[in-house]
Amino acid sequence: MNMDAGQLDAMSMEALREQERLIARRHLNHFPWMTFSWGMANVVCWLLLWPAVFAWGLSLWVAFPVAVLNLMLFYLPSHEAQHSIIARPGEKLRWLNEFVGHVCSAPLVIPYRVLRATHMEHHKYANDPELDPDYPMHAESPLGAIWKAIQWRQPRPDGKPHAYARALERLGREDLIAEAALYELAYYTFLFAMAWSGFAIEVALLWWLPRHLAFIYILFYLAWAPHNPAMERGRYKDTRSFKSPLGNIGTMGMQFHVVHHLYPRIPLYRTPQAYWELLPILEKMGAPIEELSARPD
Amino acid sequence: MHFLKFIFSIGPLIFGIGFLAPLISQSFQALGWSAPWGFSTLTFGLLVGAALGALATVRGRWV
User: Fold this and answer.
1) Tens digit of pLDDT for each residue in B12-54?
2) Complex ipTM, two decimals?
3) Does the beta carbon of A150 lie under 8 angstroms from any beta carbon of chain B?
């Protein structure tokens, strides 16, 4: 889109929205090869770490950082599946969408169906202190956000059941609460069995600690940074673009999160391009895009 | 469901005994340390793991 400010000023709100939809449409319905490959490669890599450590003599000090990276990388392929980006219900590749969703969320020990249900609530009520399941990540500073991410992992944060459990209760999805409980039960049974068999350090460094560290990263960059300060609600206000020293790859594409909330079915790998094309309209609509208002050369 | 609720209500205590205890014990052994007060590393791990787990169960948080 090459429209100057004058042309945009002359457009009605409806025309702007139409222009926005036209741009977004160009980025929709593309198979997310990048996220799909990343998800599958990540699963294979993490699973191979186990025989590599136990049978092939790979040092735990090498395996541990790889496992942290693996766990950090599991969420987003599942996230693409949550939004049916790989295939929508009824489409031929729907099974693949669900497969990616399940296998990439299982190592995080949160069922795919739980992630999907709570994430849809997040999109519906982003920044609502009562109804947004990600709102407990609200914090005023990066250090505060890290602390909130640690708190998010506690058995009863704020003395109440977890925000995800509360969201599922509101939705009447006791079946999903039970599913999440069974996932945890299976995970802890595995941890305990490994630990009492003499492999506590191995299982701690291949799964337990990497999972905790991964959640801090995921919650920081996927829940806090794109919504900070999380004070406003509304289509163009409940998320923002931001500039991070880690860049787009280091933040897993979250710098352009505003595009995701406007058009959740645009694949992650296309959000930067969509963002730059939508930028003049986002500016006009008052979206918080100050930190990324000019395309780097 | 009631059984699951009970298990999760004392989850941190179970975690302290089921995971932290052997983890502490095996970490001491890997580092070549001996447990204080003449305890075996496993007894020491059980004491610390159970104490931390019980505290986390009461407080609803580890930190």
Assistant:
1) 999 999 999 999 999 999 999 999 999 999 999 999 999 999 9
2) 0.95
3) yes
Tokens 């070549």 identify what position? B32
Residue B54 CA to residue B63 CA, distance in Å, equals 13
C-alpha span between A170 and A104 (Å, rounded) = 26
Contact between residue A171 and residue A121 where contact means Cβ atoms under 8 Å apart: yes
CA-based nearest residue to A192, from B43, B28, B50, B15: B15
Give the list of residues 6+ apart from residue A83 with CB closer than 8 angstroms, or none: A264, A265
Q: Which residues of A touch B1 (CB under 8 A)?
A: 178
Nearest residue to A174 (alpha-carbon basis) of A161, A186, A187: A161
Distance between B37 CA and the closest CA of chain A, angstroms: 23
| Contact list, B56 vs chain A (CB under 8 Å) | 155
Mean pLDDT by 10 residues, chain A (297 residues): 72 92 96 94 98 97 98 97 97 97 98 98 96 95 96 89 95 96 96 98 98 98 92 91 92 95 96 96 92 80
Which residues from A are below 8 Å from B22, CB to CB? 195-196, 198, 200
pTM score, whole prediction: 0.94
- Residue A288 preceded by cis peptide, ω within 30: no
> Quick check: A200 and B22 CB within 8 A?
yes
Centroid of chain to Cα A64: 22
Q: Cα A8 to chain center, whole Å?
A: 33
Given B11, B22, B27, which is nearest A196 (Cβ)? B22
